Amino acid sequence: MSSQIIFFRKNAADYSKSWVTATASQGNDYARNVLNRNNISAWITTGSVDADNTTLTINLSDIQEVTDILLLKHNFKAFTVKYWDGSAYQDFSTPIVETTNTETSNSYQRSSVQTSRIQLTITGTQTPDVDKFLYQFILTTRIGKLESWPQIKAPVLSRNKRVSQMLSGKMNIQENVGGFSTSLNWDSLSIDADLDIIEQLFDSSEGFLYWPCGGDEDQFKTLRQGYRMEDIFLVKCTNDYAPEYNSGVYVNGIKLSMNLAEVID
């Protein structure tokens, strides 16, 4: 069964939280790159081999709730993820232990834990004895997964282009990383669980994570940017909540639009 859209709270280890640290037993200078929300820069080791049992530790500084762990864009074959209980690293209720992983992105939903640290230990790479890399390490709590299938309209991966014409007639185009935006639309929504999620998102004063693929890339006829496992965006609603019953008849479902745009925080 295909997976619907999932929403999470902002990464507990987001780079905007200056008190959060990322440290690694190898490649430590690049460790904090896993917190910066992008698929451009990464944590990477130098001269690492599988036998090194390389660790990457996220210190949240204070106790946070974690239900979901996402490792996005990596080359790990064998690894474990554990949480700090105040005196030692412990397995989750269902341990995160991979020995033959072939995916380049992984997500894990587990029973809630209260912790200040998470440690990833890599004991093997998909190509033996090459350097390890990871682009995004997300520790979060789940807001919810939709049961409905909204229309995803007007998705834009903007490069924030600035275009000007030179005296020669040639065009000068300047661009940067830019941002993401899209619109979710329902013609008639009557699923209470989804409406509860939507109301929570509209009420949120902080950005939340929007994961279009919901953990399943195979549901798309062709896999494009914006819908891959690694594509997750910190967004907020740019329009107001307008819960209009379809055709104005209150026994019908709700007609809704939710416009999302990537935000700084």
What are the key terms here?
265 residues; mainly beta; Jelly Rolls; eight-stranded antiparallel β-sheet; 18 strands
The residue-averaged pLDDT reads 94
* Unreliable spans: none
Span between N and C termini?
Answer: 33 Å
Radius of gyration: 20 Å
CATH superfamily of the largest domain: Galactose-binding domain-like
Under CATH at level 1, the class of the largest domain stands as Mainly Beta
Derived from helix and strand composition plus strand pairing, the structural class reads mainly beta
CATH architectural grouping of the largest domain: Sandwich
Helical proportion? under 10%
Tell me, what's the shape? globular
In the CATH hierarchy, the third-tier topology of the largest domain is known as Jelly Rolls
Number of helices: 1
Largest β-sheet summary: 8 strands, antiparallel
Total beta strands: 18
The tally of structural domains comes to 2
Q: How would you describe this protein?
A:
Helix content is 5%, strand content 46%. It has 265 residues and is mostly beta strands. The protein has 2 domains: 8-143, Galactose-binding domain-like (Jelly Rolls), CATH 2.60.120; 145-262, no CATH class. The protein is built from 1 helix and 18 strands. The mean pLDDT is 94. The radius of gyration is 20 Å and the shape is globular. The strands form 3 sheets. Strands 1, 10, 11, 14, 15, 16, 17 and 18 form an 8-stranded antiparallel β-sheet that branches. Strands 2, 3, 4, 5, 6, 7, 8 and 9 form an 8-stranded antiparallel β-sheet that branches.
